[in-house]
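This part of the workshop introduces the protein records we will be handling. Getting from the letters to the tokens is the skill we practise here. The record below serves as our worked example for the rest of this section.

…
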Amino acid sequence: MNMQQLMQQAQRMQREITKKKDEIDAQIFEGKSEWVLVTFNGKKDLKSFKILKDGVIDENDKEMLEDMILLAIKDAFSKINHEIEEKLGQYSAMSGLM
């Protein structure tokens, strides 16, 4: 394989990586806990936040709500990271991109 072929292969791989990354960035990922629903895009930008618990939250529930928010965010980020690994993981080992 000559240098020109290597460069073409690298450019092709870069286009594939960019395409897959753009697909992930455009996807919507939901994270959910018992009381909270959050929505992020693949860039991990928060798109929506909803409290699912009906009624007024009293002072005793404040700490529980905070925990539920964290759980929902972690759930969404876990889904995003899984998608990134699934679509781009093969490239990270080759080039240290991720």
